[in-house]
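REQUEST FORM: STRUCTURE PREDICTION
Request ID: SP-0412
Submitted by: Lab K.M.
Chain count: 1
Length (residues): 450
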Amino acid sequence: MITKSLMAGAAAVALMATPSLASAPDQSALEARIAQLEAQLNALKSEVVAARTQQAAQQQDIIRLETRPVAPAPVQQAAAPAAPSEGFRIGDHTVKFGGFVKVDAYASRYSGGDPANGDALREFHIPGSIPIGGTDEDTATDFNARQTRFWLTTDGMVGGHKIGTRMEMDFQTLPGAGDQRTTSPANPALRRAFITIDNWLIGQEWTNFQNTAVLPESADFIGAAEGTVFARQVQVRYTRGPFSVSVENPETTVTPFGGGARIVADDSSLPDFTARYAVSKPWGDFQIAGLLRQLKYQSPASNIDSTATGWGLSASTKIKVGAKDDLRLMVTGGEGIGRYVGLNFSNDAVVDASGELDSIGVVAGFAAYRHVWAPGWRSSLIWSAQKVDNDTGFTGLAANRSAQSLHANLIWSPVTAFDVGAELMFADREIETGASGDMTRLILFAKYGF
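STATUS: Completed
RESULT:
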């Protein structure tokens, strides 16, 4: 359209510039008209140049847009869960598996006679089983790998709730059907199996009355057995900050009137109740725990139907000494708590002359000092004891009165998670008659955790 305008303007200029076509032209007016038309023509030329320049730029933009690669639209996907630092994922849960293999060699001498082959005392220290009154024999040597352990855990978020589980087993308490002549078999035994949901724990776990964090490092299964609160059982526990409370499986152990074999009663109507307060400070850790329980025994054959109350308090601490050493302490006391302390060294209650239950008092504790000699080298010196307050008119004179043990060990870790060591221990048991028996034991072990 711009080109046609230019052509029309040029024709008009040519026509008017021809003398034969002008009618009596005024020379001045004609020249002014010609100058005006030339100005319009120049203006039209400028507009054409500008229009063509703009048109070329627009065509270049179109070409660039058509030839530019177009990025695909982003696909909306759910964020992939972060890979766990260890373990693997199944759905919303991180699954981990671990444990350790431990091999022990024991050389033991008993002043009151050797325990029978297969007796648990030959594999770990049980204060109430040290023989009394038998014949002193030569040193007995035993090898086993029954403390070997494995565990499986899961952790995840489901519906906005943090949910986890743990299953743990070893081979310590259930020897296999064979014997040491062939394969030294052992059967797996359940240690821990529980669910955690936010602040709740439901299942089998260490009693809330216990503090496993202060247990001394020992080659023995427990070490300071006489003075330690030690029980694993099914419970429901709630924890909020440093406080925790629980209801736990009840069980009452009873001494018959006048003494005799332990009675394990399963007659309790109420669960055991515990409460605990635990704090961690730069100097170490401290915990205090309480236990309240119903003791109950029913025996229609003996016309016994009685209940009593048991209670206990336990305080424990681990205090840092210098850069690497520590001191570990526990003291526990109460009445009717025998099965919780020292692997049931004392029973919870005794039947009195009228057929009623009478709670038995107990005081127990331990002290342990751990020293690091050099990187990978460390030792623990452990003393543990328990004293029972028996009414010998009810319990008789064969009831356990006291027990104690002393341990010294040296442990070396040449590589991460691999320990080898030796521990020398001396332990004794005394009954109400004053008779006693002792055990001297050397333990050598190797352990690798994974």
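NOTES: DSSP finds three helices and 22 strands in the chain.
Reviewed by: T.R.
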